[in-house]
Write a structure and sequence with these properties.
The chain is α/β, with parallel strands linked by helices and 224 residues long. 47% of the residues lie in helices and 13% in strands. The protein has helices at 4-9, 15-36, 55-78, 94-107, 123-137, 143-147, 195-206, 216-223, and strands spanning 40-47, 82-86, 114-121, 160-163, 182-185. The strands form 2 sheets. It has a 3-stranded parallel β-sheet with strand order 1-3-2, with helices on both faces. It has a two-stranded parallel ribbon with strand order 4-5. Strand 2, helix 4 and strand 3 form a beta-alpha-beta unit. Helix 3 runs parallel beside helix 4. The mean pLDDT is 93.
């Protein structure tokens, strides 16, 4: 969800106001995905590298995250959304960890939209923590064992990975899981990426042929 700060600066506002607008857009995206029948939505909210940003901005983001979890969890539960936060939660203070635990516990039995918030997350960190978990258990390191030890162990690999803000890179996001994801890059800054933009991205995805190493002819034969 890239471009919050630039969105605010373009309007003569502080960067933190862009993050507030971005949070409101995230709420809308969850609603739109539910309406469209999307089963899994993962939002990259805060990367493990984002700690390097100005302290004032990081502090505001942490407070915004905690407040949003408190304010939105009941609504998510009412709408049958299951919320999970993926990332290194040990990097957060006790107040935020408690807010995460409460929101996850409240929504854990829901079976509608599965919403994952990637916070203090990095794809390299995810693979390292998976390898450590396997080593601690004395298990062999295979593709299957790593897959089941990632923080996304209970969900499928993403079909479509969208990045807003005009950047064309995945910036350490779901590196293992996105091996065969379709990539879509939008010039829209995240607060401007509305439901129509999401539908356009999905329409673009639906026009693609996903081969997973096979030939186009093989896929065409199977589809018919």
């Amino acid at each position: 969800m890239d471009g919050n700060g630039r969105w605010a600066q373009a309007r003569g506002k502080k960067r933190i106001m862009g993050h507030k607008a971005g949070m409101e857009r995230a709420r809308e995206m969850a609603e739109v995905c539910g309406d469209l029948g999307v089963k899994y939505l993962t939002l990259f909210a805060f990367s493990s590298e984002n700690w390097n940003r100005p302290k004032e901005e990081v502090s505001f983001l942490m407070e915004l995250f905690a407040t949003s979890l408190k304010n939105e969890s009941k609504k998510l539960n009412k709408n049958n959304v299951k919320l999970t936060v993926i990332g290194d939660k040990d990097g957060f203070d006790a107040k935020l960890r408690k807010a995460i635990d409460k929101a996850e516990a409240l929504t854990q039995d829901n079976d509608g939209l599965y919403l994952q918030i990637a916070a203090n997350y990095g794809g390299r960190w995810d693979m390292v923590q998976a390898a450590k978990r396997l080593a601690d258990k004395g298990e062999a390191i295979t593709e299957e064992s790593i897959q089941s030890s990632l923080v996304t162990e209970n969900g499928p690999e993403p079909d479509l990975l969208i990045r807003t803000g005009g950047e064309q890179r995945i910036s350490n996001f779901l590196l293992w899981q996105a091996a065969y994801s379709e990539l879509y890059f939008s010039d829209a800054l995240w607060p401007d990426f509305d439901g129509g933009a999401l539908k356009a991205a999905i329409d673009n995805y639906n026009q693609r042929q996903r081969r997973f190493g096979k030939t186009g002819e093989q896929i065409a034969t199977v589809s018919h």
